[in-house]
Design brief:
This is Glycosyltransferase. The chain is of the alpha/beta class. It is built from 18 helices and 15 strands. Helix 9 links the parallel strand 8 and strand 9. It starts with 12 loop residues before the first strand and ends with a helix.
Length: 507
């Protein structure tokens, strides 16, 4: 079938979304699919007809199908990925279920999806017409840009991290700054691509992972993926907005040389991870009930929510310091805990990983709720009693904080998270960093520092008031960016960026 035109003369199109196999990537891709579907079915003269398909492995597709609302026309395509063929655990179709040391092998194995993806792409282009197909793939699947070019279809790369963090991280990967040996954690160097941006040695190691960056195979893989995207893709799609990251967008445009489309924030609900759904829904309902009941009992903007994301966690020693700091602050809190980083993440959480009697004391005084595993993050952040979020600063969590106007106590753990934390504190003025990274002990200064940071954000001082004011203003701006007026004529910056993206791909 050739290239179709709808009644307003705008090209119909089929967008093939291909996320990296990790929860933190699947979620924003699903939210992007929902946004695209809404654009494709909004109706009206000149409105484009869009077909949206998410490509992934069978287990991931099954989970995504459950998260799609009833009546949705989002499609799915499965690519076979037998993990055992790659010396990985049999259920390893996502980073969520593999240990950190196996990440490089998993990343390398995803490139073995290429033949089946190219077969899918060739069949689709032959049936619908090459000009009707656009691949929108994850940055860590840079080989898809080569595949799209070979088949003759459009390609755009979707970055699930922020613009500022992406620009700084990619620059470090491509042209690592030269630090002296030995270096102090606080030593700084300017980036080759951005002389006005300086990174500390501790930040550098959290991005590079090891100092032998000249021979590190994982870094070589990441560098190759970024280079393939910059060389062969037709543009960058960013889960951010011009209002959030003007500097970051300027940097990523300079580094990539590609058209950039800031279409975010792409915000959606989160569901508890599950196998068949039954047990997880039961556990999730219990967690949600406990959290919301606790929030309902507290004053406005008084509660600290603590979570390091669905996959990240901290060492047991730091967990103890965090618990002591929370207790010393006297502030009410909800803490979603996972086993410490040195233990298997699938283990049952043990009381011994927290100070003796901690959970009993905070429960008896109605001072805190400790949730094992999953917590209803969106519901917590949306609640009027939530006053701050102690976060690992993963980009999905950052966007959810901004969307709900909640200031952040930053405890970034690795990679782009350290630069998300910097953005929140230095550029946006809605964050305070309490610890950073995993090297050098995470530069955690102890429970007193936790207590003081929590007091700074939730207190009545000038800094707390200023952070709350800025968070409220950012909430207004990010929601306006994705808004469409009742007449369809007035559109936010991110909606206009999405229109430009589709025009570039199909018109």
């Amino acid at each position: 079938m050739g290239h179709e035109q709808d009644r307003g003369g705008r090209g119909a199109g089929h967008v093939l979304l291909f996320p990296f196999l990790a929860q933190g990537h699947l979620i924003p891709f699903l939210n992007l699919a929902k946004r695209l579907e809404s654009l494709g079915h909004r109706g009206g003269t000149g409105q484009r007809r869009l077909e949206v398909t998410i490509v992934s492995t069978p287990r991931n597709v099954a989970g995504l199908r459950r998260a799609v609302p009833a009546g949705s026309r989002i499609g799915f395509a499965e690519l076979r990925f037998p993990p055992s063929d790659h010396e990985l655990p049999p259920d390893a179709e996502s980073t969520d279920v593999i240990p950190l040391h196996a990440f490089p092998a998993f990343y390398f194995a995803t490139e073995l999806l290429r033949p089946s993806f190219e077969a899918l792409l060739t069949e689709l282009a032959g049936r619908q017409g090459r000009e009707s197909v656009c691949v929108l793939a994850d940055v860590f699947l840079g080989w898809t840009a080569e595949s799209a070019r070979a088949v003759g279809v459009q390609h755009r790369v979707f970055l699930t991290s922020g613009a500022y963090a992406s620009a700084v991280t990619f620059s470090i990967w491509l042209r690592p700054p030269a630090f002296p040996r030995p270096a102090d954690p606080a030593d700084e160097q300017a980036l080759h691509d951005f002389p006005d941006v300086r990174v500390r040695y501790a930040e550098f190691l959290n991005v590079i992972v090891t100092e032998d960056h000249a021979t590190n195979p994982m870094l070589a893989y990441l560098r190759r993926m970024v280079t393939l995207n910059f060389r062969h893709s037709g543009g960058l799609v960013m889960n951010t907005s011009e209002e959030i990251e003007p500097k970051g967008l300027r940097l990523i445009r300079k580094l990539s040389g590609l058209p950039t489309f800031a279409v975010g924030p792409l915000i959606g609900g989160r569901t508890p991870p599950d196998d068949d759904g039954t047990a997880a829904r039961r556990d999730g309902d219990e967690s949600e009930d406990a959290c919301i009941k606790f929030l309902d009992s507290k004053p406005a903007a008084s509660v600290l929510y603590v979570s390091f994301g669905s996959q990240n966690t901290i060492p047991a020693a730091q967990m103890t310091e965090l618990a002591r700091g929370l207790e010393a602050s006297g502030r009410p809190f909800i803490w979603a805990v996972r086993p410490p980083v040195e233990f298997d993440g699938d283990e049952e959480f043990r009381a011994e990983w927290l100070p003796a009697g901690f959970e009993d004391r905070v429960a008896a005084t109605a001072r805190g709720v400790v949730v094992r595993g999953w917590a209803p993050q969106v519901g917590i952040l949306a609640h009027a009693s939530t006053g701050a979020f102690l976060s690992h600063c993963g980009w999905n969590s950052v966007l959810e904080s901004l969307w709900h106007g909640v200031p952040v106590v930053g405890w970034p753990l690795l990679a782009d998270q350290v630069f998300d934390s910097r953005l929140l504190e230095e550029e946006l003025g809605v964050g305070v960093e309490v610890a950073s990274g995993r090297v050098f002990g995470g530069l955690c200064k102890g429970w007193e520092h936790v207590r003081d940071a929590v007091d700074t954000v939730l207190g009545d001082g000038d800094k707390a008031r200023d952070m709350r004011r800025k968070a409220t203003e950012l909430k207004r701006l990010v929601r306006a960016a994705v808004s469409v007026g009742p007449d369809g004529e007035v559109m936010g910056s991110s909606v206009l960026a999405m229109e430009r993206l589709l025009d570039s791909a199909f018109d």
